[in-house]
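Entry:
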Amino acid sequence: MKRHIADTPFKSQGDEIAFFKYEKPKFTAEHFFAIEIFTIETARPLDDTATLNTFYEQELKYIHLFLEQNKFFYSCFQFDLKELDHFLFVRGAKPMDVRVPEGMGLDPSFSTSCDMLWGKFIAFERLEQWLRDEDIG
């Protein structure tokens, strides 16, 4: 996908925004979800139901804390707001008045200010549902 984006320029800024806002996050969400599930599965207690449910509740608190810390962007994600798209989903663009997450180590030719964050939101919403389904209490 990265090579295709490098070899095939977007026809418009709208196409670039659509890719980095809707398409790429679907893929990064799968990556984030798999890592989180692996982490949970390898760390979860096996001794009793009460301990396991407490463990799942702590994982849910972690998700809610992350979403709370990113409340502004999570609201933009939830309501599919478009006003800042030209800053958040165009490569090299940076909003002046809004603090965006640091993308240390990300390839600027294949990343925007928020595409990874959108992927994490998708993954965490899915993970939250998975944890609720796993709750055996």
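The CA atoms of residues 22 and 130 lie 22 Å apart.
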